[in-house]
Amino acid sequence: MNSIYTQTSLPLVAPPASPNTQLVPVRMVNEHVYCPRLAYLMWVDGEWAETADTADGKRIHARTDKPAGSLPDGDEDVPFRTTALTLTSDRIGIIGKLDVVEGEGRTAVPIDFKRGKRPHVEKGAYLPERVQLALQAMLLEDHGYNVPEAALWFAGSRERVTVELDSELRDEALRSVSELRLSAAAHRAPPPLVDSKKCPRCALAGICLPDELNLINKGQVPRPLNPADDPALPLHVQVPGARIRKSGETLVIETEEGRTEIPLIRISDLILHGPVSLTTPALGALLSADIPISWMTTGGWFLGHARPLSVASYDTRLNQFRTAEDPLRKRRL
């Protein structure tokens, strides 16, 4: 007697968020839908690499990154508009900064700003952006607001696109949050995408190494990807009495002979020689941009060094120490 057995698979759901659970940034859920490995490297490993695209994205968000306005406290039908609003949801286990929220009374519409032009695709936008908006809507709903719709603003084409918040999209958003939380809890990066068109423009392609890993694991022939042309170079400041401060995303170097402005994206390291002063806001901006600072004497002797404190290498360092204590792994390596 022949029987046909079929095995069904059920989705593995992350446990409910507790007070000690790390909240998932909504933006990271967007990245997870786009590429699970990218989201893991950015959120769990703390990896980041600036590109022209990401720098342009910061410029687009400059207007909405400064908090302005507030949500109404009462139930009066008063129109409102607020920017850079940060909300959390313990129910879902997420945290998100909403670029713009417009509405009246207890009705609100989240608007997310995007660089580039509007894509002419079904449902008005790609799935990662729609999932991000669905989670922003749920954040507002958890704070007592009715959210009938959401919208995307594309700076490149100056178009506003309405996104429908149907049950299918909401289920996809919640499923994506669960998948990202489970991935982080496992402390194992998802495999890279295979022969994906997303990889060549990815800021973390040089860290993710998709083709190299697929060559090792699957024998896939690497594609001829062009490495990014990193415009960042070390900056040495040697003029005695020079003063360095920040202005937006730019370092301003002032001396008796004048001033020089250099965008942070063009600086890989800052080396100060002798009596050169650095303001605290400039120091903070450099550390936030992952730019190390070194102090030298006028004659070039090294005095000290500062770089951002990051947990990006925690798993890597842990595995390195484990390998160092394992003679067999050391020999094999």
Descriptive report:
Helix content is 30%, strand content 25%. Strands 1, 2, 3, 4, 5 and 6 form a six-stranded mixed sheet that branches. Strands 7-11-13-14 form a four-stranded mixed sheet. A four-stranded mixed sheet has the order 10-9-8-12. With 333 residues, the protein is an alpha/beta fold. The protein is built from ten helices and 14 strands. The radius of gyration is 24 Å and the shape is globular. The N terminus is likely disordered.
Features:
single chain; 333 residues; alpha/beta; six-stranded mixed β-sheet; four-stranded mixed β-sheet; 10 helices; globular; disordered N terminus
Shape: globular
Distance between the termini: 52 Å
Number of separate helices: 10
Strand content: 15-25%
The Cα radius of gyration reads 24 Å
